[in-house]
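Let us practice reading a record.
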Amino acid sequence: MNNRAFIPILLLSTTMISAVCAQEIITLEKIQIAEEYTAIDERRDNSIAKRIIKAEELTQYGDSNALEILRRTPGVTISAGKGPASAPGKGYTVVMIDGEATSTGTSKRVSPLEQISPDMIERIEVMTNGSAEYTAESMGGIVNIVLKKPKAEGRTLAKVTIGAYGEDLSETAYVQREGKIDKISYLVNLTASNNTKEDRTDVLTDKTALDTNEERDDQSKSRSVGLRAKLNFTPSSRLKILYDGSVTFNHDTDRINSTTLTEGSATPTSRYQSHDDATNTMLWSSLGAEHRFGDDIFEWKAKIHSFEESGDLESLSTPSSSNRKNHDYVLSRFYGLQGDYSALRDEHFIKAGFELKRSNQIDETTRVLNGVDVTSVNDKIQMKEDKLALYIQDEYTMDEGIVLTPGLRYETLERDYGATSNLGYFAPSLHALFQVTTKDNIRASVAKTVRLPRLSQLSASTNSTLDENSINRPDVIGNPNLTEEKAVSYELRYEHFFEDKGMASIGGFYRSINDKIENAIRFNTLSGRYEQTPENAGEGSLWGLELELKKSLKEYVEGFGLFANASLQDSSLTNSLTGVKREILQTPNFTCNLGFDHTLKESEITYGAAYRYVDGYNDPQEYFISQSQKGYGTLDFYANKRLDKTFKLQFNVKNITASTVETTSRLYDASGAITQTQVDKEHTKPQVLLSIEGKW
């Protein structure tokens, strides 16, 4: 494990205070409800280890969508989205929306999580180990994004945010109305946004007797509008009918201008331009009901989800005068039915359920090179998946302060993606809670989990980077022979809760992995291009330590609190093809979050700052390529002021440190000598946001 200069940061985090900030010290509203049942109380009492992040915390740092929020959440891994700065964690965290699993890798450009505004979210639940109730694909834990539900009182919320990313402006508007008409409670919200960003990347390539320096400007524009509605009809105390529907339209454009200079030359040796224009539509619809039979509840839900994307990508490079055009189309749609039955029997709280789901996906790409159609048979693929899941889980209170939660889940899948596959697997889990005192918990858990390849990973079609191809920007090709990754995860954690709603915890985890899925990058000598393919790399393990602390310091400074957390991890994997033993690729050993919040009660002003550091990694040479990345940190600041009972003003500065993500890639020959070194420095800029929010 390589922690070098970051040991002082870890010591600082353990002496300061940590985790997710206390509700009552962040804003005036939270101070007023400090004596009520808080997220810390709920975390203490829950039978399964769970971090709970409430709505007030989600909006304070100016994150524009759920993807940005999850990237800063401790222990969460979200690999989708553009750029290399995805949050590292224990790997492959599954993301659910209202208990419904969502794919973050269907689109070639955006993540569905980018369509969810923080203002739509009631809370985020982070479960660190698998649970039979949710899904067997819970490797690295489960994140459940709980969206706001209708409330009885009529209320309107409106929020407008304007911002600047360097010289580029952005605007976001959010409007929500909730209320009740007779026996129908409703919630409707509308989100509209227009964001522009321009970043620069410097690429220094050192080949044998030839050095080049590329300057690449990447300008992206995103326009989005989304409408969501939730309706609850309660004809009696024993029946509630629920509808949830949303539609989101998004238009993205991305322009890249690149100039490359060769060492010793004053004029550019090559230029590259690309223009990517895409539109996508996401539909989400479900109808369900809750039936009460005394202490028993039966819930069911029928759902239809759809994602459709169409894009045109064109590139022009000189002096070779290579003109490439791609038109791609993606349609992903699934239908499903699920049911859950809950029963309270003495010391047992039993839940059982099922899920039926059919998924269809179409990937079509048309390729044109210098006016000639070069589309291949692998560029038009239709895929299908049928899934059946059954589970049973019991929350058993053995004695005062001892709760066991055993569970068993069985899933079976049939897939057709050109080839066919049939899978069936059991996923048992066991969680134990020992409430040693009213302030101290010991938790232990073990769970068997899987990671299934996404349909897009099984597709033999190529997601091409056109003329921008390099070690760090390879073509992405699926692997029809990819099989599921399997693991057994163990966790042990101690938690202490303070009187002021603060807490401290220390926990360790260990995961034994079979058929580890990794992205292998190779240089194809026939095509002269770098290609990335998911592969089952071998057998491995991952282990680590997680520290959390959070504490109000009101005895010293009224309304002041500090928070911090730190994660250390290490890994080992034996490659099944080469027999080489190494660390798991692109796995940082260390991350931490440090920050403070301060509320000035008399002036009704709250302000705070948070710093996040992600350690680098240094992967060994494999398949004649190696990669390493330097650590980087981001600093965010916020301040809000309650103007009156209706309006609140908030100011944010994100990424004050203007982080640069530096990745070094090396190419080797058969003798092990380095033939090319490429250093990518992706620069970012600070972002300033000003928002005003009103509630009526």
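A brief commentary: The chain has six helices and 35 strands.
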